[in-house]
Specification:
421 residues; alpha/beta; TIM Barrel
Length: 421
């Protein structure tokens, strides 16, 4: 029998570090619609480790949730982009094969798709068709966009249903800072982007619209570039989001790339002003932003922002050896299939090429690769600098695998229908 694992270091501060609801992935996996899949996975892994005397086949499941990068093309030139090195490479999906892959995954248990990253999704030539295709298969769908293609989002807004969302990455309250941070390649102001939101909401009030604000402090660096500080724009950005009928603003800290393995990590360099001073300013302005909340508009602080501020973020870098969540959520990109958004376009996180889920034969081959990845990808080492949003759920699954008798008493949570992972 395997020895018991270390406990989750983040759990010791559970009351202080409460996960944002959208990041409470263990609770999501306990929903009635998913808990059976968790039990299958846990018993399979427990049988393989020898912590359970029974036998269990490998679950033949697609991931519950994927990040879908429709394109590597982008019409902005943001200095703070973590994917800057893969943009505008010319690598593309073959459209029909992409649809075949999405269909195959939907037939095997895919529940949600977050269209995000790797480029601007609304530049994809059949963006609207992809949205309708996914919704015809009763999948939850979310879109993260720079806002330049809001006209296309409006065209297919009627396809979205309750629980779907669109989040615009804007990061500023003034057009001056927006232009400096995002550098749109065609003339476009922050007002031009925001003015589409009331129209989209009018066409489909059920579609949640979010304003994404990545907080950047003086001295933060990525792509060998000093990037624009926007702390003083937090309150202005919140007022803008409220006035333009967004449902919420999401505040999160800036991420950079690790020089060791290119993972997405937090940058806490103390260049210019000290980082502690930056946190004091951030807290003050976030508190002022919260005063702008209404019944229909909320200010969301991300989990990363909470744990960065209270100083416990390093607890979330202490990972179990096995990243279990790569079984339940992955990235599908024109560059391939990857085990985590942190490692998109990184060889050590690659599960297969872009058509790895195209048909039943390729699906099984990808499952074989995934099994090998679960055994050989050492998250305790590879992710030791990553403040991982999946840390808590990975330790929860690790504990269940090492103590499979807990499966019997596993609570089934109320099914909220939120399957985004």
């Amino acid at each position: 029998m395997s020895s018991a694992p270390k406990s989750n270091p983040a759990s010791n501060n559970a009351s202080e570090n409460e996960l944002a609801p959208i990041h409470d992935f263990s609770r999501k996996l306990q929903q009635e619609g998913l808990v059976g899949r968790v039990k299958e996975y846990v018993l399979w892994q427990a049988a393989r480790r020898g912590t359970w005397d029974g036998t269990a086949p490998r679950p033949q499941q697609a991931p519950v949730s994927i990040n879908l990068d429709l394109t590597t093309a982008c019409n902005f030139a943001c200095d703070h982009c973590v994917d800057k090195d893969i943009l505008n490479t010319g690598i593309k999906f073959e459209h029909e094969r992409l649809l075949d892959s999405l269909h195959q995954m939907a037939e095997n248990g895919l529940k949600s798709v977050i269209i995000i990253g790797g480029g601007e999704p609304t530049t994809y030539f059949k963006f609207e068709e992809v949205i309708y295709f996914l919704k015809e298969r009763n999948l939850q769908v979310a879109v993260v966009s720079n806002g330049s293609g809001n006209r296309r989002i409006l065209k297919c807004a009627d396809a979205f249903t309750e629980g779907d969302w669109v989040r615009l990455s804007l990061d500023a309250g003034s057009d001056e800072v927006f232009q400096a941070m995002h550098k749109p390649k065609k003339k476009m102001t922050l007002d031009d982007i925001c003015e589409w939101v009331p129209q989209i909401k009018e066409k489909n009030p059920a579609l949640s619209m979010g304003f994404s604000f990545i907080i950047v402090w003086k001295g933060a660096e990525i792509n060998q570039t000093n990037i624009i500080e926007n702390i003083d724009e937090i309150e202005m950005g919140t007022a803008r989001a409220r006035d333009y009928k967004f449902d919420y603003i999401s505040l999160k800290p800036f991420l950079t790339r690790s020089p060791v393995n290119n993972a997405e990590i937090m940058d806490i360099n103390n260049k210019g002003i000290t980082f502690d001073e930056a946190l004091v300013r951030i807290r003050k302005l976030v508190d002022r932003a919260k005063l702008l909340e209404t019944d229909g508009f909320k200010v969301w602080e991300s989990t990363n922002l909470r744990v960065l501020e209270n100083g416990t973020f390093r607890n979330y870098t202490q990972q179990p050896k096995t990243c279990h969540m790569q079984f339940f959520r992955q990235v599908l990109s024109p560059l391939g299939v990857y085990n985590c958004p942190v490692y998109r376009n990184q060889r050590h996180g690659r599960l297969g090429d872009r058509d790895a889920y195209e048909n039943a034969v390729m699906f099984r081959q990808t499952q074989n690769t995934l099994e090998s990845m679960l055994d050989n990808f050492n998250a305790a080492d590879e992710c030791k600098e990553v403040t991982c949003l999946y840390n808590d759920v990975n330790w929860w699954l690790e504990d269940l695998i090492n103590n499979p008798e807990k499966i019997v008493a596993l609570e089934v949570a109320e099914d909220t229908g939120d399957y985004y992972l």
